[in-house]
Amino acid sequence: MNISNQEYGELAKRHSPPSAMYKTIPLAFAIGGGICVIGEAILNMFQYLGLEPDEAGMWTSMLLIFMSALLTGLKLYDRIAQHAGAGTLVPITGFANSVVSPALDFKSEGFVLGLGAKMFVIAGPVIVYGISASVVYGIIYYITTLF
Amino acid sequence: MAICEGKTFKFSNASISAWASVAGKIEGEGPYGDEFDEVLDDNKNDMDTWEQAEAQLQQKALQHAMDKAKLCPEKMDLVFAGDLLNQCTGSSYGLKDYYIPFLGVYGACSTFAECLLLSACMVNAGYVDNCSAVTSSHFSSAERQFRFPLNYGGVRTPTAQWTATASGAAILNSAPKPPYIRSATVGKIQDMGITDLNNMGAAMAGAAYDTISRHFKHTGTHPESYDAVITGDLGQVGSDMLYELFERDHVDLKQHHKDCGLLIYDRERQDVHAGGSGCGCSASMMCAHFLGRVQSGELKRILYVATGALMSPTIVQQGGSIPGIAHAVEISYD
User: Fold this and answer.
1) In chain B, what's the furthest Cα-to-Cα distance?
2) Measured in whole angstroms, how far is the alpha carbon of residue A47 from the centre of its chain?
3) What distance in Å separates the CA atoms of residue B322 and residue B196, rounded to the nearest whole number?
4) Domain total in chain A
5) Same domain flag for B73 and B98
6) A69-100 pLDDT per residue, tens
7) DSSP of B96-108, one letter per residue?
8) Which residue of A has its CA nearest to B206?
9) Is the ipTM, as predicted for this complex, more than 0.95?
10) Tell me, what's the pLDDT at B1?
């Protein structure tokens, strides 16, 4: 080849179109924000029905997770996500989708080695580093209470 | 150090006697939908798993080709087949019930050209009478193996390509009837240092350039010598890069170039980003569209260059790059 890898990399970069951010960012904002508005409405509804704020928050999370899991099963969540991008990835619904989608997909390899083993293939790192970070935070918090 | 030029094989006695293609639902809704021999209503095709569905694609494609050639499996001497799945299970499970002597081939998305050129070698040398080349790819089985679960809400980048759910099968013999396979150039592995899993076109364009240039040089031809130079699945990014690589040599390829990855879908209407890919993509487009036009003489001479990204998710996660490869097969009316 009469071209160096560096030159070739620049050529590839020049011909690779970037994401259309003028479109993707507002869509992510609108759909992600929409999910949060729905969450807020559910929260208010539970409080209106007489639940304590803590309990209402827990039920809201559970309902959003359920709705996301259901939409994933109905093959609708990923279609919405094609337009929403980070808007459907960041809220708690995105986390639910990342657990349910491999569970559905790998069911064909059995409940133990398929579904069970692969269920956290995407969410696993989030859980590992999320829990690790909370432990570190807890230690720092504990040290600050000593003084 | 002198660089190995390789050889271009010349064939005097190899022609494609029959061919057939099977495509999935989205491909069936594409611009060439009515040219496929069979379009699946449901990409799972009543199977339990996507892998079984892909195996069925190959079984169906070869069956259609054998029906057209009026051959039964007992008359087939050899089949070269490949796909994208680990251990090439689409091929081995799809073709096992035919009991045809089988040689599995892996060249990523370049596999169909590899199977064709190997078949031409066998037929031309007189080792076999009827030899078949079959490849397939399936969007769902490929996504599961290479990327994310099907219903995961991840977003594809604009450079990503859509693995075609399709299969193509061709049967070669030495009968004096077009389309003939006249020559072939085996590709070299070209590692251009591309590490982006979502930019296969960029990983393959260098290999396509190298193989096409060597083929031109060895045969004394140029883009105008062919009715079309048809690459496998460079997509928009890879095609644009290929034009620029040739422009550096003052060769205008664009006017004579077609890319199966850009043809198989309507990119305005179908959300496939940079185009189609997979070893079923160019196999099905060759068998559905191009071979028939060479047979009728509408196209006199084409250069089919299937391109493959020899990508391993493991190596990419380890920080490695994605080598590309491309094999050229010249198909002619006379």
Assistant:
1) 56
2) 26
3) 8
4) 1
5) yes
6) 999 999 999 999 999 989 998 889 999 999 99
7) GGG---EEE--BT
8) A1
9) no
10) 53
